[in-house]
Design goal:
By secondary structure, the chain is mainly alpha-helical. It contains 7 helices and 3 strands, in the order ααββααααβα.
Length: about 150
């Protein structure tokens, strides 16, 4: 029997990433948060064949962006986002939390600018990006790219 997949609201995933980054002393700006969400989504699509969150990721000038999260945290500009306990963290299953945190750990060594450069060299962003236009980076393009990348490891 296949385990039922839980799909989380992106703001719940973002809050968990911010909380974890603050606990681990990883600086996380809105720009970096956007890239972390992209890589977390890729991890779920490849390893669970399901998205982590249903919201779309768009190809913006500085790489992949989830607009809802961008607008929620843009008040922090390029500063690190503090974790503020609102009491509404949402429940993320333990295996999913581990998967999210492992991806954050892998990306922690990179600056936001380095993550932008990495995503700018990946097909999902390249194929979706059009200057001055918000285009969706499809979940299929993310899954296909990272699944192929995984096969080449």
């Amino acid at each position: 029997m296949k385990e039922e997949q839980i799909v989380y609201r992106v703001l719940i995933v973002a809050r968990h990433i911010i909380k974890y980054c603050n606990e681990m002393n990883y600086p996380v700006s809105n720009l970096k948060l956007q890239k972390l969400l992209y890589f977390v989504q890729a991890e779920f699509l490849v390893n669970k064949d399901e998205p982590c969150f249903p919201e779309e990721i768009e190809a913006w000038d500085f790489g992949p962006v989830v607009p809802e999260v961008y607008h929620r945290y843009k008040v922090y500009g390029s500063s690190s986002i503090p974790y503020i306990n609102t009491g509404i963290l949402g429940r993320i299953s333990s295996p999913d939390r581990i998967m999210i945190e492992e991806m954050v750990d892998q990306c922690a060594k990179y600056t936001a600018s380095q993550l932008v450069d990495i995503t700018h060299n990946q097909d999902p962003w390249i194929k979706a990006y059009t200057p001055y236009k918000s285009n969706i980076i499809t979940k299929k393009s993310i899954r296909d790219y990272f699944a192929e990348d995984k096969r080449n490891d």
